[in-house]
Amino acid sequence: MALCAREPRVPAERLVAEMVPPPRFDSVRFDTYDPDPTQPSQTEAVTVLSGFAAGLGGAHATGAGKRRWFARKPAAPTGPRGVYLDGGYGVGKTHLLASLWHATPAEPALKAFGTFVELTNLVGALGFQQTVQTLGGHRLLCIDEFELDDPGDTVLVSSLLSRLVEQGVALAATSNTLPGKLGEGRFAAADFLREIQGLSAHFRPLRIDGQDYRHRGLPEAPAPFSDEQVTKAAYATEGASLDDFPGLLEHLARVHPSRYGALTDGIAAVCLTDVGPVPDQSTALRLVVLADRLYDREIPVLASGVPFDRLFSDEMLNGGYRKKYFRAISRLTALARDAKPLVSQ
Questions:
Q1: For residue range 64-81, what is the model confidence (pLDDT) as tens digits?
Q2: In terms of pTM, does the model score above 0.85?
Q3: Following DSSP, what letter does each residue of 255-315 receive, concatenated?
């Protein structure tokens, strides 16, 4: 199979139905989170979020749940109806966010989970008003990897969240502290609360300190293999795809990022030959989205060419989108480690 041969079409209904924790986080729970004993903020986060989930039980915050006409209207919830997980790469924010989704006492149809990009794609597919109607009856909306680097999308999502808060939807979000700002306290939280402006009162910032767990105590990612090794492994692995990296980058330009998940349907491993530096920022940002979808679906990536930490130029890694590029490097490195056994099969 080749990813370049696929041009998936994704109906809007699928975008809504897929707003659940991705396969990698389907079975995570608070009690499966492994806090770093040297970072008490990680243990504290579990306690706070567990209580937050428990507080979302019962009727919808607006009283929209089923109740008799003579029943007393439930008291308005006290305290912030949102939580923002503030921390760097690989401290387990997505694990905790998915655990919150699972722990919230509501049926799956009343909870939504998606990345910031997936949420903007949903608005693009349904329209603003229809998205408000679709999500307005939910108990909880979890937004992973909230992006602060696109003012237009930030304003769009902030407006959407304002409408949802009015309808009683509880919110939870994550984003990453910029690599150059690690150790500077609540830098990301300050940015987040400033950018969402009127919504800031609805969020409680929750700091999560620590090192990237994907590399904590683990060996370095394997060096790239040869084209011959990658090709041989692709043909020997059932369900693997095989693509030339430059050709795949060109193909991604023809497929909307909202369909990158569908692009990987049924793929057991992604094999890439001739991996090289990404030529420009638009291409790099598309690759970031693909890396996120591959990571969510736990699809190993076997590659030849340059190591993944050389995909992005120094200019990109020092620019406004650097948090995305560092996340992509971290996730692709983890997937490369997962793919190493394919060569020895």
A1: 443 333 334 333 444 568
A2: no
A3: S-GGGHHHHTTT-SEEEEEEE----SHHHHHHHHHHHHHHHHTT--EEEEES-GGGSS-HH
